[in-house]
Amino acid sequence: MGRGNATFGFWQLNNRSIFEVLSSKMDGGDETKLIVFCGYSVILTITFCLARTWQFLPRLSYLFAFLLSWFAGYVVRNWTPYNSDKLVESCFSSVELAMIIPILVFHYTLRIDYYTLGRILGPVVFVSCSLFAANVGILSIVMYSISELGSPYEPKLLHALILSMITATHAVNMLERVRGRVRQLQILLQGEILISLGLFCYLNNILLKFLDFNRVGIRTSAEAVLVYMVWHVLGIFPGLLAAYLFKQFVRRAYDDCAGQGVCCISCIIVIYCLCEILGICGSLSVLAFGVSLGTSKIKFNKRTARYYYNSDRALTFLASSIIFVYCGFYIGLTHSGYKYYQASYIFIVFATCMTTRVITFVLIHRMIGMLNQITWRHLTVGVQSASRGAILLAFSLNYIAKHKLHEGRQLLIDNVILVCYSYVFNIALLGPVLEAMGINDLTRPKIINMNWALSLVNICRSRAIESLQVDRVIADANWVVVDQSTILRHPYKHSKKRSIQASYKDFEEEFDAKGRIISCGNCGAKGGSPTV
Fold this sequence. Notes:
Elements: E1 8-9, E2 12-13, E3 16-17, H1 18-25, H2 32-50, H3 57-79, H4 84-91, H5 94-107, H6 114-119, H7 121-146, H8 154-163, H9 169-175, H10 183-210, H11 222-233, H12 236-252, H13 257-277, H14 282-295, H15 302-333, H16 341-363, H17 365-368, H18 376-385, H19 390-401, H20 408-428, H21 430-437, H22 444-469, H23 479-485, H24 501-511, E4 515-519, E5 526-530
Antiparallel strand pairs: 1-2, 2-3, 4-5
Helix pairs in contact: 2-3, 2-20, 3-15, 5-13, 5-14, 5-15, 5-19, 7-8, 7-10, 7-16, 9-10, 10-14, 12-13, 12-14, 13-14, 13-15, 15-19, 16-18, 16-20, 18-21, 19-20
Main location: membrane
InterPro entries: Cation/H_exchanger_CPA1, Cation/H_exchanger_TM
Domain Cation/H+ exchanger transmembrane: 57-397
């Protein structure tokens, strides 16, 4: 079938069904793409069944965008007259990534309690650096040992480095509901996100600069490496300077929501591009810009804060969707096939990531003990929370578009499947893990406080009704209806998480010596009232 003579119909191509054409096209060495296609369909089905909250819907849409773009790239490569190699060169450049990567990096610096993080910064830095170093070392060794004979070690080291960068924002958002009981774990995960991202941005450019990934015979000296490392450290100062200038602008444009948002996005993109031109890590400068803004006490009005929150969510969703579309279209356009052993290879890599995290937590448990209120149950959630997302794929695309790595495509495919694994095991299964660990359950102090508050509210309600009954104007009102319509139901009475009947007995024993127990005849709620 010639590429330029194809005739399309409803679910048909040249009087043959699309599925028949797919089956005939995938005979031979390229049949594994059909397996990958079916695998993604199974993953999407599983994740859709496991996702019971709206928070997973954006991730599900990312996977659908990747699947559709991959299919579009495959169709363009096989049934259109376009040259796929030239199309890849024209569609994928570092210019688009220079506008997307700063947005994704800046997103991870927002909505962090920097005051609480600063109080426990020492243990958080130690734990995060230990997890990052252990992940890089063990992963690189495992990937090098199970890869094909004769494959170089440098790409495995780079792959282990990028996989050590975690994005646990979904876990942080879910832990936000529990509030105080897992506050230290939430701060630990947020600090690990920042530190792992900063370490990756710093070490990534150094490895790309001085390691011979493309086998062109680069020779470097120790002095050059040292100078380049110091030069990259100076890359945080443009971000700090831009943050200071942005603070001055905010003070003079307090009520201009759109102006502040446009100025912020423009600043991070300009900083990133300028630092990349100067040979400095632009991602590190953007990270410094976001942390500097977060630690400073900038006063925003409510309208501006709401605008920032909504615009950040919209931009992050748009940037992540574009990254997944780029990945799918690029993989569909390229020609090389996918080998069978890669499926087991990627699963071993993912299992190694989880196992390394468990081992590291066990080895440094004494340092973690310095963080108050963190138990082994919380650390289990910490192991489950380490996910990978769009920023991992963005840097993987940057290896192809900017650095022209020979193994960039294979690294991108591996990272895409790892992200799919992460969406299933680290994100979709996080809710059941929280329920199994009992972190979402109602605690006894919380139930007792609610009982006490409910009893006081009922006392105030009954006294208000008694005082209104004395009024001559409304004395003949239907007070039965008033009593039924103003009653306050117990919010935990019909909770599925945990029965509160047992807590009533503890509540009665605790308040028996201090006061008397009030029991509501309508809802059955009990509360303590202090004696006069």
